């Protein structure tokens, strides 16, 4: 039998393989289009620069805020830790970021102290940023090593007055909240301390607990709750105006005679200078909504932080606080004869 070897001619009403393939491809493209469009429409993550170490006190404030703002904005907010120079390295990068609202910075009171501590930080903390709002305050606690011969703040002052030796005050590096607390304490007591800097808070706290190289440490309550509750350090007082809910039995330094002494590690959220006002308004609203998030409040309360009220989570309130503290730290550092380097 002779086989037909000519070209294939499809019968009327019967689809060719090529036609079937084309139909399948068209159907696949049609079904995939919504998913592709959704993927393309998904916004890129918003970057929140934290100019201090991961798992440090400022980072511990920033992460719940980033999560809550992400839920409000409907986009991921990722933390980018850029360390160095007491917060100035990260702040410098934040100041130079594109002013489109996709890069923010959450930092602490070091933003205000930078001009007093560094001759050329590389940015102006007021002029090179757009304030969005205050985020939270974290009170601080003055601690001593367990072997220090002073059981109270009054006893510590008497020990200092005797002047038998200069005590060593630890901190988490120049420009850190603990460094600033030490400067203010020295300024208020009119006493000199030897300052010993560590790479971070964790190392400073560990050295105090093990009675290593430092006698005193003034740091954020979020960093020291564990050794305080374990009674492995001496507790001399808190730096807030009122006693803390997490440490109700610890008196303030002010009520123990250090009149007017108050220091809070306040945290603020910033955008680069030139960010459009409509974007700043959107971010400000998102911040205020995020600060009402029950999970955020619970997370920050657990580390002793006090969430900013809505009237403080504003650009105006943050700018006022920043400008006031820039002047404050200029005065303190000048009095302590710690000139910019």
From TrEMBL:
Official protein name in the record: Tripartite tricarboxylate transporter substrate binding protein BugD
Signal peptide residue numbers: 1-38
Family of the protein in this entry: Belongs to the UPF0065 (bug) family.
One Pfam family from the record: TctC
Transmembrane is among the record's keywords: no
Record key words, sorted: Signal
PANTHER family per record: BLR1237 PROTEIN, TRICARBOXYLATE-BINDING PROTEIN
InterPro entries documented for this protein: BUG, Bug_dom1
Keyword Secreted belongs to the record: no
Organism: Zoogloea oleivorans
């Amino acid at each position: 039998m002779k086989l037909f070897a000519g070209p294939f001619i499809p019968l009327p009403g019967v689809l060719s393989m090529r036609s079937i393939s084309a139909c399948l491809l068209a159907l696949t493209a049609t079904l995939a289009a919504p998913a592709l469009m959704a993927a393309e429409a998904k916004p890129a993550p918003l970057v929140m620069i934290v100019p201090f170490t991961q798992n440090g006190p400022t980072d511990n404030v920033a992460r719940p805020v980033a999560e809550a703002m992400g839920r409000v904005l409907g986009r991921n907010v990722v933390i980018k830790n850029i360390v160095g120079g007491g917060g100035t390295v990260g702040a410098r990068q934040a100041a130079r970021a594109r002013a489109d609202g996709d890069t923010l910075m959450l930092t602490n009171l070091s933003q205000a102290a930078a001009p007093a501590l560094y001759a050329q930080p590389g940015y102006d903390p007021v002029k090179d940023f757009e304030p969005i709002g205050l985020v939270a305050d974290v009170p601080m606690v003055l601690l001593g090593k367990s072997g220090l011969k002073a059981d109270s703040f009054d006893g510590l002052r008497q020990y200092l007055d005797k002047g038998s030796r200069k005590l060593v005050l630890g901190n988490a590096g120049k420009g850190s909240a603990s460094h600033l607390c030490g400067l203010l304490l020295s300024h208020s007591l009119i006493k000199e301390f030897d300052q010993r800097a560590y790479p971070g808070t964790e190392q400073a706290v560990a050295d105090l607990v093990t009675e290593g190289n430092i006698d005193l440490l003034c740091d954020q309550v979020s960093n020291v709750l564990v050794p305080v509750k374990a009674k492995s350090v001496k507790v001399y007082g808190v730096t807030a105006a009122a006693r803390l809910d997490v440490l109700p039995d610890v008196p303030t330094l002010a009520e123990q005679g250090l009149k007017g002494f108050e220091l809070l590690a306040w945290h603020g959220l910033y955008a680069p200078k030139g960010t459009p006002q409509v974007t700043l308004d959107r971010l400000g609203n998102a911040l205020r909504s995020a600060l009402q998030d029950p999970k955020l409040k619970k997370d920050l309360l657990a580390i002793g932080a006090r969430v900013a009220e809505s009237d403080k989570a504003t650009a105006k309130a943050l700018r006022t606080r920043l400008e006031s503290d820039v002047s404050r730290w200029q005065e303190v550092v000048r009095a302590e004869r710690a000139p910019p380097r």
